From TrEMBL:
Protein name, per record: 5-formyltetrahydrofolate cyclo-ligase
Statement: the UniProt record of this protein carries the keyword Ligase: yes
Domain of life (superkingdom): Bacteria
Keyword Cell wall biogenesis/degradation among record annotations: no
Keywords annotated in UniProt: Ligase
One Pfam family it belongs to: 5-FTHF_cyc-lig
One GO location term (cellular component): cytoplasm
InterPro entries: FTHF_cligase, FTHF_cligase-like_sf, NagB/RpiA_transferase-like
SUPFAM superfamilies listed in its UniProt record: NagB/RpiA/CoA transferase-like (SSF100950)
Organism lineage: Bacteria, Pseudomonadati, Pseudomonadota, Gammaproteobacteria, Vibrionales
Originating species: Vibrio eleionomae
GO molecular function terms listed in the Swiss-Prot or TrEMBL record: ligase activity
Gene3D superfamilies: NagB/RpiA/CoA transferase-like
Amino acid sequence: MEHKTSVRNRVFEELRKVAFPDSRFHFDFGEFITDFEGSSDATQRLIDHPFYQKAKCIFITPDNCLEELRYRALQDGKLILITTYSIKRGFWVLDPAKIDPARYLYAATLDGLEREGEPMSLIDIRDKLPELDFMVTGTGAINEEGVRFGKGHGFFDSEWGMLYRIGKITTDTPSAALVHDCQVLTETLYPEVFDTVADAIYTPTRTIEVEAPHKPTCGIVWDLLDPVMFDTIPPLQELKALEDSGDI
C-alpha cells in the first residue's frame, strides 16, 4: 500500500501540470479521474483501434477523461454501459437509439447520464444486454505492462468482478486505459489477484499494446472487500445476494 501511495503521489505531481480541474473536486485526484491536455488525441487513438471498431456494446467508466469517448461512441451507434460516480447509484445503459442525438453530449456527462440513460440492475444487465465487447477506464498511474494504480478505491476492478460473475465479460474481453503520457511508468508494478491489467493503453502520443495481460477470474473477493464499499454500493449487495441464493 505504501508503494502504491508513493507511485500515485509522484504521478499526481506531474499530472497536475496538464490536468483540468473538476467542478466538484478541483485537483483532488484521490476523488476523481481527471481530464487532461491532449485527451482528444488519446480518444482518437482509441477510436481508431480494432478493439473499438469491432465493439457494439462497451463499458466506459464515468471518468472525466472519457467524456469525449462516451459522446463519440453514442454518435457511432454503440451501446454504452456505465456506472455513476463511486457506483453508489449503480449501473446505467446509454442507448443511442433511445436518446435524442441533440442530447448525446449531455448524456455523455456524469450529470446527464442519469437523465438520459436507463438504470440497470445486475439481473437486467445479465438478461437484457448483449455480451460486452470492450472495457475502458481512466486511471491514476499505469506501467507499460498495463498494471494500473487507480485512485485507490478499486472501483474498476469491482466492476470487472461483478460483470465477470454475471457472465457479461470473459478473460478474452479486452480492457483499456486512456491516460496522459506522464501517467505511464516504465517501472515494475505488481497486480493483486483481483487487478485487471489493460490490453491497451492510449495516450496523446502513442498506443501501447500489452501482451497476455492478467484478467482476474475471482469475481469479488469478499474477504478483501472494504466493508464501506459493500455498505454503500447496491450492485455489490445485489451480487452477494445472487451468489448466496445460487442464482449465478
